[in-house]
Design brief:
The complex is a heterodimer of chains A (about 300) and B (about 280). Chain A is an all-alpha fold and about 300 residues long. In chain A, about 75% of the residues lie in helices and about 0% in strands. Chain B is α/β, with parallel strands linked by helices and about 280 residues long. Helices cover about 35% and strands about 25% of the residues of chain B. The longest helix of chain B is centred in the C-terminal third of the chain and has 18 residues. Chain B is globular. Chain B starts with a strand and ends in a 6-residue tail after the last helix. Classes of the chains: A mainly alpha (about 300), B alpha/beta (about 280). Chains A and B meet through helix 8 and helix 9 of A and strand 7 and helix 2 of B.
C-alpha cells in the first residue's frame, strides 16, 4: 500500500514539474494529457500497482528526454547572456498566450492569427499540390510512356531547394501571398506524385488479371482496384508532403512578410525578442507534430488491412 | 474400359461442339532479358462442349501458359486458338478464370467481389435487384451465404477459393478455366472442394479446363487428361480418356480397378516416360 501512495506522490511532483515547462504552454500539447491516467482510487491495490508501473514505464523516458533538453538549454543560456533560459521563456510565453488573438493592425497581430495564417497558406498550397500530384501519380504509375516522359522532369526539378522557386512565384503572381503558396505547392507535390506512382506500379499482376478477365472499364479499374491498393502509398506521400510544406512555410514567410509564423519570427528577430523566437520554434514543432499525428490517424482509418 | 491414348488430337474436321475450344499448332516464345525462351511448341488439341479437361505436367512445363493462352491473358507467338467458333482475341468474361491464389480484392467483401463480376457481365441488361439475387444465388451454390459480408482476410483459404469459384461461375462463362485451383489448400479441404466442384459442374454443364499437378485430382474430375512433356518447348505428350461413370464417389473409386489403372497410366507418363531430372 505504502509504495503505491509513494508512486502517486511522485506522479504529483512530476506533474508539477511538468507545469513549469514551456512546452505545455500550448493548450493542445500532448503533455497535458498525462493528468487523466493518474490513478486516484486505491481500492484495488494489485491492479493499481500494475497500472501505475505501466504508466511510469511509458512516461519516464520521454520525461528524461525533455529534462535533458531543458538542462542543456539552461547550461547554454548561462554561457551566452543573450540567449534566454527556460524560465524567462516560460514567463514570456504565458504573457504571449494570454492574448493569442489580438489585432493591432497588419503588422501587430496575436500569435494565434499568425499560426492560422500559416496554416491557411500550407492548406492551400498543399491542397493544390494534392489535387494535381495524386492524379498525376496515377497517370505516371499506370502508363509506362508517361512515367518515362516525366522521369527527367521530376529528376531535374525535385532536388531544387524550395526557396529557389520564390522569385519565379513573385514574378508570375506579382504578389507575396500567392508566391508563398506557390512555393508550398511546388515543394509538396513531389512526394505525392512519386509515392502514388510507386503504389500504382506495385499493384499485383493478379489483380490486374482479374480486371482483364472481367473486362473492367478504366474507371472501374481505378475505383475498385487501383485506388484502394494505392491508398496506403498515397497516404505516405501525403504525410511526407505536409511535413515538407510545414518546413518550408517558415522560410517562405520570412522572405514574403505579411502575417504568419515565419514572418513573426523575423519580426521578433528585428525586435531582438529572443524569447519569442524560441517560443516560435516550439510552436512550429508542436503544430508540425500535430499535423503528422492527424494524418497518421487518417491513414490508419483508411487502411483495408 | 476404353483406355485409348492418342498421340495428338486428330485434325479431321469435326462439328463445333466437338471442338468447342481448339488450339491449333500453338507456339509460345517469351522474350526475356536473358534472351528468348520457347515455352510451348506445336500444342494442338481440342475440347468438346461440356467436357472437363485437366492439363497435367511437371512444374515449368507450360501448363499454366496454355491456360493463360485460352484465357486470352497471353497471345500465342504462332498458331490459333478458338473458343465457341470464334478466335480468342483477348481476355473476356465468357472465359472465366479461377486463379491459383484466389486473387480476391482484399478491400471488398465476398459479396462485393462476386458482385463486381456479376455487374460487369449482366449490369447492362439487368436491374440491381436481379444482380444482387444472382450474386447471392452463386454464393449459396458454393455454400458461403453466411460469410457473404466478410472480407477475404477474415475467412479460411478454402472459403477464399470458393469465393473465387463463385466469382467465375457468376459470369456464366462458356468455359471455366481453373489454374491449380486447390494447390494452396490442405489435403482435406482440397478433397472437400473437389467433391463440391464436381457437383457444381454436373449442375452447370459448363466446359472446364483445369491445370493441376495432382494425379488423383486429374483422374477424379476429368473426362480427359492432357499430359504435357517437360519444357522448354513443351507440347502435348498424350491425352488420356477417363471413362469413369459419373457421379463419381471418391471412396468407391479408391478401390476401383479402372480408376487405379488410369491413375498409374498418368504416373507412368510423369515418372517413367517424362520424368523430370532432379533440380
Amino acid at each position: 500500500m505504502t509504495t503505491i501512495l509513494l508512486n502517486q506522490e511522485s506522479v504529483a511532483t512530476l506533474m508539477q514539474a511538468d507545469d513549469t515547462k514551456p512546452e505545455s504552454v500550448v493548450p493542445t500539447s500532448p503533455k497535458t494529457e498525462i493528468k487523466s491516467p493518474v490513478p486516484t482510487t486505491p481500492k484495488k491495490p494489485g491492479l493499481l500497482a500494475v497500472k501505475s508501473r505501466e504508466f511510469f514505464q511509458w512516461i519516464i523516458p520521454p520525461m528524461f528526454g525533455i529534462g535533458l533538453l531543458l538542462v542543456v538549454w539552461t547550461v547554454i543560456a548561462h554561457q551566452s547572456p543573450n540567449l534566454p533560459g527556460p524560465v524567462s521563456t516560460w514567463h514570456s510565453a504565458v504573457q504571449l498566450f494570454s492574448h493569442p488573438f489580438y489585432d493591432n493592425g497588419p503588422n501587430d497581430k496575436g500569435i494565434g492569427w499568425n499560426i492560422v495564417a500559416s496554416l491557411e497558406r500550407v492548406g492551400l498550397g498543399f491542397g493544390l499540390a494534392a489535387l494535381v500530384g495524386i492524379p498525376m501519380g496515377f497517370i505516371l504509375g499506370r502508363f509506362e510512356f508517361m512515367s518515362r516522359m516525366a522521369a527527367p522532369i521530376i529528376g531535374l526539378l525535385r532536388p531544387v531547394s524550395p526557396l529557389a522557386w520564390l522569385p519565379i512565384g513573385l514574378l508570375v503572381f506579382k504578389m507575396a501571398n500567392p508566391a508563398a503558396i506557390w512555393v508550398i505547392f511546388i515543394s509538396a507535390i513531389w512526394p505525392m506524385i512519386i509515392n502514388t506512382a510507386v503504389g500504382v506500379s506495385k499493384v499485383p499482376q493478379d489483380y490486374m488479371n482479374v480486371a482483364k478477365v472481367l473486362n473492367l472499364s478504366e474507371w472501374k479499374i481505378v475505383t475498385k482496384i487501383l485506388f484502394p491498393f494505392v491508398l496506403p502509398y498515397m497516404m505516405t506521400g501525403v504525410r511526407l508532403s505536409i511535413g515538407v510544406a510545414w518546413l518550408v512555410i517558415v522560410a517562405a514567410e520570412m522572405l514574403t512578410g505579411g502575417v504568419g509564423i515565419g514572418f513573426w519570427v523575423w519580426d521578433e528577430w528585428n525586435n531582438l525578442n529572443v524569447e519569442h523566437i524560441i517560443i516560435a520554434i516550439f510552436v512550429v514543432g508542436i503544430v508540425g507534430f500535430m499535423l503528422e499525428f492527424l494524418l497518421l490517424s487518417i491513414a490508419k482509418r483508411f487502411s483495408y488491412e | 474400359m476404353t483406355q485409348d491414348t492418342i498421340q495428338n488430337a486428330t485434325t479431321t474436321v469435326k462439328p463445333v461442339a466437338e471442338r468447342y475450344v481448339q488450339l491449333e499448332n500453338v507456339n509460345m516464345t517469351f522474350v526475356t532479358k536473358k534472351g528468348t525462351f520457347e515455352a510451348l511448341r506445336n500444342v494442338d488439341f481440342s475440347i468438346q462442349e461440356g467436357e472437363f479437361i485437366s492439363i497435367i505436367g511437371h512444374s515449368g512445363c507450360g501448363k499454366s501458359t496454355v491456360l493463360n493462352l485460352i484465357a486470352g491473358l497471353l497471345n500465342p507467338t504462332d498458331g490459333n486458338i478458338f473458343c465457341a467458333g470464334r478466335e480468342v482475341a483477348g481476355p473476356g468474361p465468357e472465359r472465366a478464370v479461377v486463379f491459383q491464389n484466389h486473387s480476391l480484392l482484399p478491400w471488398l467483401s465476398c459479396f462485393e467481389n462476386v458482385y463486381l463480376a456479376v455487374e460487369r457481365v449482366f449490369g447492362a441488361t439487368e436491374k440491381k435487384e436481379a444482380l444482387t439475387a444472382r450474386t447471392k444465388a452463386v454464393l449459396e451454390l458454393v455454400g458461403l451465404t453466411h460469410a457473404m459480408d466478410k472480407r477475404p482476410n477474415e475467412i479460411s483459404g478454402g472459403m477464399k477459393q470458393r469465393v473465387g469459384i463463385a466469382r467465375a461461375l457468376a459470369m456464366e462463362p462458356k468455359v471455366l478455366l481453373l489454374d491449380e485451383p486447390f494447390g494452396a489448400l490442405d489435403a482435406l479441404t482440397r478433397a472437400h472442394l473437389q467433391d463440391e466442384l464436381m457437383g457444381i459442374m454436373a449442375k452447370s454443364g459448363c466446359t472446364a479446363v483445369m491445370v493441376t499437378h495432382d494425379v488423383d485430382e486429374a483422374v477424379l474430375l476429368s473426362d480427359r487428361i492432357v499430359m504435357m512433356t517437360n519444357g522448354p518447348a513443351a507440347t502435348v505428350g498424350e491425352i488420356l480418356s477417363v471413362d469413369l461413370a459419373r457421379p463419381r464417389k471418391r471412396l468407391e473409386l479408391a478401390e476401383d480397378r479402372d480408376y487405379n489403372h488410369l491413375r498409374s497410366e498418368v504416373l507412368k507418363f510423369l515418372y517413367e516416360r517424362h520424368a523430370k531430372k532432379a533440380a
